[in-house]
Design a protein that fits this description.
Mean pLDDT: 92
Strand order of the largest sheet: 4-3-5-6
Low-confidence stretches: none
Shape: globular
Bound molecules: adenosine-3'-5'-diphosphate
Oligomer: single chain
Radius of gyration: 18 Å
Helix content: 40-55%
Number of strands: 6
Distance between the termini: 36 Å
Length: 297
Amino acid sequence: DGYYLHQYQGFWCPSPFIRPMISFQRHFQAQNEDIILSTYPKSGAIWLKALIFTIVNRSRHTLEQSPLHTNFAHQLIPFFETAIYMNNRTPDLEDLPKPRIFATHAPYSSLPHSIIDSNCRIVYLCRNPLDQFISEWQFLLGIQGNKGKQRSMDEALEMACSGVQSYGPIWEHVLGYWKVSNEQPNKILFLKYEDLKEDTDFYVKKLADFLGYPFSKEEEKEGVIEEISKFCSFDNMKNLEASKTADRHPIGYTTKMFFRKGKLGDWKDYLTPSMAERLEKLMEEKFDGSGLNFKTS
Ligand code: A3P
């Protein structure tokens, strides 16, 4: 009940996921057609999963028949760490339908070698650290708050600023993928939640191109891109049957908790000006010279 953070290869890994992370690193055999989604926690993994699942499977079923109606995206494309934790062993992955899609929160430097060495592709998604912080704080409140264990926001911020956060430090996590995505743009597509939100259609097209499932001229004319954006939008996904189950996962969350607000700049309702300034400054300092920045409102 409850977990602690354990430093593993320079990042703070939640204790239940240490063994799964090691098992993933040691045993996962990537195949060239695989798609790996890597995200920093609370940056929109569920959204990215729905988008990619829908894009690559669009010839298999219509949106009305999408398995996403009845299957929570985290069930269709589980996080490795969670899948191994739940099964207590590495699940049999060989026979999954192609393309196999996997998700992880692992930092770039901890990815299994076969992911780096094979021709599989990686899509990375992160989010501005202010909204990420609030989203995570609210999520933990949902898991722990009713047990009276939630830290104060001040304390949580103090920890996040020192990098003590699930898979933190966020700066190192984001920069790890950022640097490689600049060197190998065909290997890693680096996405920010804010950009995805601002122009979903553009990124749906970009994802399809990057993953080798480009839209035909006919599809573009028929408005398939816009339909996919709409189907995966916060308002639509929140109201799918699969999103409404209130069952609590053994790890402590419910499906509903993944659809909180889905907006930009939500931190403004929670962080005091000095808290926000502290995060903004730290962000500037950490990303200085990297060419990376985030819109915060
Ligand atoms: P908020 O807590 O700010 O609302 P993850 O899936 O990585 O855990 O990220 C969860 C965050 O993504 C939550 O942010 C959630 O509301 C938001 N989200 C979920 N589905 C979304 C969607 N379809 N479009 C945009 N944001 C979404």
